[in-house]
Amino acid sequence: MAFPTHLRLFEMGARDGLQNEPGAVIDTAIKIELINRLSECGLRHIEAASFVSPKWVPQMGDAAAVMNGINRKAGVTYSALTPNLQGLEGAIAAGADEVAVFGAASEAFTQKNINCSISESLERFAPVIERAQACNIRVRGYVSTVMGCPYEGETDPAQVAAVSRELLDMGCYEISLGDTIGTGTPLKAKQMLEAVSKQVPIEKLAAHFHDTYGQALANLYAVIEEGIAVIDASVAGLGGCPYAKGASGNVATEDVLYMLNGLGIDTGVDLEKLAQTGHWITAQLGRTSGSKVALAIGCQ
Ligand code: HMG
Ligand code: MG
Question: Angle 122-124-129 (CA atoms, 0-180°, nearest 5)?
Fold first, then answer.
């Protein structure tokens, strides 16, 4: 199949990235500046915050202040995670353009991450999706552990397909497939996608791959070949998941962008500016960028 001419990048750095920073809680002003800089790079979809319990994820405790503090650039969608109605009400009050519910294909991970079973999670998401839709807010659905679980090992693609289908039927406009611990390889990614795309049209699927084993770019190439045209990525490769020990961040947005540029796939994002943004945020965090491309381009 031919590659798409255009692909949508969904920037995860401010949420999936910063949620997992160890140590002191990052200043709200730094988060706000990161999001503003990301929007100046041409990114049109930015996950900005997470309205989860601050006892569970202290780094996201200032979600409302972050959402209220950013410069809303026209044409940019600022989204937030909302695990339940309480989170949704917070996100609505803070003016989130879009929200996301997040489940998983593995029972054990669901329990550790959101403290309930898969079926309970879907029951919990139903009123969240209903209320968001009543407010004309689109809901994205995440499915974690699509290529492996830190507690259960292998994931059955049929289970990923079943949870994805449920979320779609409940009203999610798009399902983002999370390789939470980055254990996937290209063939596995294709096989997983083959199973899911029998249940959910491929144009409603996104790839959300973490790079723990250095496979994310190869896995992305494999699923783009199959028709995926939405990719989640994190500037400088920030992040991980607090409930998946050892998981490193999403694939670096700069690295994905460099690959897409090479394939002639348009994203509307400025690589140079993005690399500088990655250098800036990692300097704030006291380390170097996790993007190989950004390191190669260098810091100006
Ligand atoms: P729970 O303890 O079962 O919830 O947590 P609860 O309803 O029993 O409430 C307990 C307390 O939490 C109460 O406060 C609530 O008010 C409060 P208390 O009375 O004890 O003072 N609470 C909240 N506070 C603020 N905002 C809320 C909220 N909800 C309850 N929304 C819950 C259940 C889902 C809340 C909890 O498990 C949680 O917050 N989990 C979040 C975990 C998380 O954020 N994980 C990382 C994001 S997922 C991810 O990174 C994967 C992804 O990137 C894809 C991939 O890579 O695979 C998306
Ligand atoms: Mg993630």
Answer: 85
Q: Across all residues in the chain, what is the average pLDDT? A: 96
Q: Which residues line ligand 1 (CB under 6 A)?
A: 16, 19, 50-53, 55-57, 81, 83-84, 86-87, 102, 113-115, 142, 144, 178, 180, 208, 210, 241-243
Instruction: Indicate whether 2 belongs to any domain.
Output: no
Cα angle for residues 186, 192, 198 (degrees, 5° grid):
135
- Tally the domains of the chain: 1
| CATH number of the domain bearing residue 82 | 3.20.20.70
Provide the residue range defining the domain that includes 186. 8-297
As a whole number, mean pLDDT of residues 254-272 equals 98
Q: What is the predicted pLDDT for the residue at 1? A: 61
HSE-up (13 A, CA, CB side) for residue 52? 21
| Residue 127, domain member (yes or no) | yes
- Report the amino acid identity of residue 232: D
The arithmetic mean of pLDDT across residues 150-156, rounded, is 96
* pLDDT at residue 179, as a whole number: 97
Q: Cα(106)–Cα(103) distance, rounded to whole angstroms?
A: 9
Is 149 one of the annotated active-site residues of the chain?
no
Cα dihedral sign, 115-117-120-126: positive
109 alpha carbon – ligand 1 mean position (Å)? 14
Q: Look at the block and give the residue holding tokens 């490193």.
A: 248
| Gyration radius (Cα) of the chain, Å | 17
For a ligand 1 pocket test, name from 52, 131, 151 the mutation site with the most ligand atoms within 8 angstroms of its C-beta.
52
> Is 125 a residue whose pLDDT tops 90?
yes
CB 49 within 8 A of CB 87: no
Partners of 80 in beta bridges? 49, 99
Q: In this structure, is residue 1 part of a structural domain? A: no
Whether the CB-CB separation of 83 and 101 falls below 8 Å is answered with: yes
Predicted TM-score (pTM) of this structure: 0.97
Residue 92 domain-assigned (yes or no): yes
